[in-house]
Amino acid sequence: MARILVIEDEPALQKVLDYNLRQAGHEVLLAGQGGEGVRLAVDQRPDLVLLDLMLPDIPGTEVCRALQQSDGTQRIPVMIVSARGDEVDRIVGFELGAVDYVVKPFSVRELVLRVQAVLRRAKSSGDGERSIEFGCLRIDEGAHRVWVEREEVELTLLEFKLLVALYEARERVQTRTALLDGVWGIDVSITTRTVDTHVKRLRDKLRRAGDYIQTVRGIGYRFAASPDLPESRSA
Length: 235
Description:
Low-confidence stretches: none
Distance between the termini: 45 Å
Oligomer: single chain
CATH architecture of the largest domain: 3-Layer(aba) Sandwich
Mean pLDDT: 86
Number of helices: 8
Structural class: alpha/beta
Order of helices and strands: EHEHEHEHEHEEEEHEHHEE
Shape: globular
CATH class of the largest domain: Alpha Beta
């Protein structure tokens, strides 16, 4: 059983989500406003947040940003559930750190399955917690923290998962589609361009260690085999 926080201002949809998630065996917390949702997330530490973008007090994007910037909540996966279905909206959601994006109206059965998939991925990523040192890069999987040359780097949950996925497959080329499947999970209805966007942001944040992530033209990306920094990001 997981504790799931639903931040949604439509009472009818609140009831539908509350009923179906409880039927699936989960504990459900409900918030009708963004500020209330952030406070509940900080106080109750849910295992997952379902977040609407159009809330009466503050935009859901600000809620997502606040959760990502707080030490106590930045590891909580956020699934956006919104009527905004344009690709640009989905990309913005993922750039803010959401792990999945479901467009309204949706199949309740599909939503529950996607919730289960996110929870499984979160659990499996926590089962193998370890500390990784690779040249100037250090990754603490248990704490979801990253350092470059002993200076801590702030990453979103998705950026962290992307970094670990690339590192674990070092020396092997990862296609954009494979990264979408492995990092984002089941079909998220976005193009592979979002992978390029996240890789660029990740490289920029990692500064010198960003050169460990190499582009394989026309295919995807791979993590360097050696901690000796390559001269170029292209292969």
